[in-house]
Amino acid sequence: MRGAFVTGTDTGVGKTLVAVAMLRALARAGLKTVGMKPVASGAVTTSEGLRNDDALQLQAAATVARPYELVNPYAFAPPIAPHLAAADAGVVIALPKILESFRQLCAGADAVIVEGVGGWQVPLADGLGVPELARASGLPVILVVGLRLGCLNHALLSARAIRADGLRLAGWVANGIDSGFERRSGNIATLQRSLNAPLLADIPWRPGCTIEERADCLDSAGITGFLNAG
Hints:
The protein is α/β, with parallel strands linked by helices. The chain has helices spanning about 15-30, 55-60, 70, 80-90, 95-105, 130-135, 150-165, 185-195, 210-215, 220-230, and strands at about 1-10, 35, 40, 45, 50, 75, 110-120, 125, 130, 140-145, 170-175, 200-205.
């Protein structure tokens, strides 16, 4: 299955916005797409069960309709670390369940975008974390760098950890999240020299920026490259 596993330098750096924009960009290229959020904490109770907004956005952006339970196999109400939320709910997050959902989700699709939870080292259960989830998916990794003070350290440590875990960093996205971030271009230039991976998009900080506008920022050639390589 072609696609990407989207992770971030931290929580709140724009992983979902980037993942949704990637789905839109791939759909523009004529691909049948699905999105997945295997584990999500911070969900609301609805008549159909717990629903997480990030997962709903991925579900809506996909061109192939899939049940919510496949898009988001594990949803927890409190917006806390997922392994803690799972323990409170008396649930053990299990990789086989996620992989079975992934298999069903991807059937008949051309490409999948999987969004992780938090940053790269977030634990999910004993012996299971985001790295194991990404490795099991078989997808190359895209790193979303939230442009704010401290992003250089967070991005370089994340990239080092991704590679140390045996995953391929296929590219990264610079996402503006701080209107007051100083020396923006200089920081991006430093990351371009240091990350040893292509910059797929430079998304400026702009209130009200639509998903379509974010999709416009994505490097279509870069997306095609990592899909073909995958």
